[in-house]
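Batch manifest, entry 17 of 40.
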Amino acid sequence: MFNVFKANREISKPKTEFKDESTVNKTQSIFQRIEEYSKKIEQGASNPTVLPNNDPNLDQEKPKPNNKLGIIIGIISFIILMLASFIPEIMENEQNLLVCESLEGDITIYYDEETLIRYTANGIIYNLEDQRIIAEDIGVENYIYAFIEWFNENTSGNCIIIERVIDEWKTK
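Output type: structure tokens
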């Protein structure tokens, strides 16, 4: 059997000076374990093992990843997603709505004093770009009343205007 350490050789302490005392302690502890291993080999042990030292500085585990950072990033991401999902609703607060419902289909037109902003429709075809041009030509308020009249004549439903009035909703 090939011995890694010669029995007659004395293991010397490191000649390097360490500034950190924990490094010195680790190094000394390692040398003590090597000396124990060498003594067991001298005594003829077939499978020499050295029990781990109880020195807390010797076998320090790597620091665990900081899970707090992941939790904080997750919470911030969740908040951003929630805010992003409410942006259309927040934008609605600055707009007036024309809500028209009938058996043939429903439409909600979002508008302000200057232009038609967007719409949602179910069962009704609506060309926003063409209707914007008409609304800008005759005025948005006149367009809304003309649309209500058209909707009442051509469908079985009716319309409601919901206006934004200084942080409160008012229906007409």
